[in-house]
Write a structure and sequence with these properties.
The chain is of the alpha+beta class and 374 residues long. It contains eight helices and 27 strands.
């Protein structure tokens, strides 16, 4: 396995493509929606590498080595020696078909030798929780990582990249096949919880109406205080932890919108009735520690063999860390060492295993996937 990692900007992209020194069968592209020459880059790559699989998505920040950039493309060219690839995609015209899309992807990829699946999805028009549910139903024993495409802080239009196309309302999934590929993964947060847990008493999919029998938005505004005046944008800074039933394991859910009319909160994933929610807030030191813990988890005992590290972090973390955002990338580099290439992006949601489950939707985490061949 050989890897080139290159950061392209609008002035040097042609020179950057010419500097690729491997014969890639996979090219990862994490692309700023503000990069105006996107199609020119794609067309050139498809001409130069017609046999390569090209996959990527739009971002809320591009990660290249230890830098976080905007208006750039983080390009990673990968030459696998023993691993086979299969790229599939499903168009999702209506959000309620998200679970069926995941089920269909599972059927298309579930073949002998499947080792891992990477998923990149439209970040606005697809229900990520339903997508994950569908994926798990037909890939019950396969690890799945990935993320939801982003559009900076605009939440206007996201896209995924399939070879020479930029597609909306689409889910991409890349299957990796063969025993020679080794994969590690981890997803950690680092947010502080405050206040009490509250019971979800009324919800429909990703819309939360009531907590403890009271209007959800009213409670949320009360807890936010002055920050409530900046809603819905300030919701990215105050996610919630969610646990179900008697489980002590919680996932983080980010708020993507509000409704004054019915006093509801809109989340980036489903909030089931009967779940318990607790408000969270960002702590810079703990967010960076969360990234460090994620890196430690994926590198223990294999640090010297790692070849590629893919980071998918949430836009909410970037908004909290601000000018210190590269600190969470630096700490990953410190843990994994100088050998592996680092790429990634800031997202609207992360997909990674959690505890016994090999696939869950997360928000506000640093999710890391490591790949190498033996």
């Amino acid at each position: 396995m050989k890897v080139n990692q290159i950061s392209l900007n609008e002035n040097n992209w042609s020179h950057g493509l010419a500097s690729i020194t491997v014969d890639p069968n996979l090219i990862l592209l994490f692309v700023s929606p503000d990069f105006t020459l996107k199609q020119q880059v794609l067309s050139q790559l498809n001409r130069d590498y017609p046999k390569s699989t090209i996959i990527g998505c739009s971002t809320a920040g591009e990660i290249s080595d230890v830098t976080v950039k905007d208006k750039s493309i983080s390009l990673t060219a990968i030459q696998f020696n023993k691993t086979c690839l299969k790229l599939v995609s499903v168009k999702v015209d209506q959000m309620e078909y998200s679970q069926k899309a995941g089920e269909k992807i599972g059927i298309m990829l579930n073949q002998d030798g499947l080792k891992h699946v990477m998923v990149l999805s439209d970040g606005l028009n697809i229900n990520g929780a339903d997508l994950v549910m569908g994926l798990k139903s037909n890939l019950p024993n396969i690890s799945i990582t990935g993320g939801l495409a982003a559009d900076g802080e605009d939440f206007g239009n996201t896209f995924v990249i399939r070879n020479n196309e930029m597609l909306e309302k689409t889910v991409l999934a890349l299957g990796f096949y063969g025993d020679s590929l080794k994969v590690n993964y981890s997803s950690k947060g680092g947010w502080d919880g405050f206040g009490i847990e509250r019971l979800v008493t009324k919800a429909d999919k990703n819309v939360l109406y009531e907590l403890d029998g009271k209007p959800a938005l009213k409670i949320y505004k009360h807890l936010l205080g002055e920050d409530a005046k900046k809603l819905p944008s300030s919701g990215l800074l105050f996610p919630v932890s969610m646990r179900q039933g008697g489980s002590a394991i919680a996932v983080v859910r980010g708020i993507s919108g509000i409704s004054e009319d019915d006093q509801s909160l809109v989340f980036g994933a489903n909030i089931p009735e009967g779940a318990y929610l607790r408000l969270m807030k960002g702590n810079i030191d703990k967010l960076i520690t969360g990234a460090e813990e994620s890196a430690i988890s994926v590198s223990q005992g294999v640090k010297e063999t790692l070849e590629l590290v893919i980071l998918i972090s949430c836009i909410g973390r970037r908004l909290v860390l601000k000018q210190l955002v590269e600190e969470e990338i630096d700490v990953v580099r410190h843990i994994v060492g100088d050998n592996p290439k680092i790429t990634g992006f800031y997202s609207y949601g992360e997909i990674a295993p959690l505890s016994e489950s090999l696939c869950e939707l997360h928000h506000q985490t640093m999710t890391i996937t490591t790949l190498w061949e033996c």
